[in-house]
Amino acid sequence: MPEFKHTASLTPEWQQDFVNDLGCTLIDNKLMNFPKDKATGSGYFIEISQDISVLIVDVTLNEPMRFTRMPSEEDFWIVYYDLSDNFSKHFVDDIKHQIGYKSKLGFAIIDSHIKSTYVSVVGERSFSLRLYIRKSFIKNYFHDVILEQDFKNVFNDKKRKMFYYGHIDSRSKVELYNLKQQKMNDSNYEFSLKSVAYKLFGFFLERLNSNMPKAGSFLEKDLNAIMKTQEYLLSNLLMPFPGVKLLSGLAHMSISKYRSLYTNIFGMSPATFFKNEKLILAKELLESGDFILISDIAYELGYSKTSYFSLIYKKHYGNLPNEVFKAKSF
Length: 330
Fold this sequence. Notes:
Layout: E1 3-6, H1 16-22, E2 25-27, E3 31-33, E4 39-47, E5 52-61, E6 66-69, E7 76-82, E8 88-92, E9 95-99, E10 107-111, E11 116-119, E12 125-134, H2 135-139, H3 144-150, H4 152-155, E13 163-166, H5 170-180, H6 189-209, H7 212-216, H8 220-235, H9 244-250, H10 255-266, H11 270-286, H12 294-300, H13 306-317
Parallel strand pairs: 1-6
Antiparallel strand pairs: 2-3, 3-4, 4-5, 5-12, 6-11, 7-10, 7-12, 8-9, 8-11, 10-13
Keywords: DNA-binding, Transcription, Transcription regulation
Protein name: HTH araC/xylS-type domain-containing protein
Pfam families: HTH_18 (PF12833)
């Protein structure tokens, strides 16, 4: 797979790599159109202030490609949001993470000194936004005690830089979804992008002030263990919820540690996640036309009573299963 290496910075000069080496066209040093033989779509970069910039990328690859951002000499955080239509792969220090709208991890904080690679699915829309925030600017928002206790490894240049993966908070997801519906060549797009960037930055600061320090300090091996239990849940949606005791055992953690880490990463309990995913599957089965009766689907999903299945389905979606059910035709 071809690899395109590029730089990143708080100022727009980095875009010249895409013009010189990839064949992109640049308009007003902001709108960057990709060559159609490689990708359909554009990127948009603006400086919000001398300490914050925002980049949004909305493309569909026409051929396989790895985009590798090389380590920067500037000292900033890349706060990353991914709302791609399918799974994308993000490699940080050669460790792979699945991201995108269908992934449960669409949010990241990456140090500018760490190399990262982005691989999207050919033919699938890739949509992501990056806030570039100078570290010294972030320091102004926290008391020295908080920095010393919770962020010393992040701001201490002598120590290995940290990175964090987690879920996109609901407020940010709404703003990103609305921005995703707009076109970059619209006359008011820059205004909309700035507005969203300010809101995301505010939500990000709130998150840092609340649970982010604890969430960001877990080890990579713990994240991998949690993700394995996530895969287990997704592979067993036709069964009853296995229980936190079994899941914590699979992760080789105590129940309390597992429950806390899982909630920090995904923003919900394992039981809530399992129920939500089971109901998403239920909706797909109801609309598939592969079943004769609704009760067949209820039993397929492990519900012993159709009435109970209908009750929780309505509570989740606001309508009854029979309102969306497509019966199998013969």
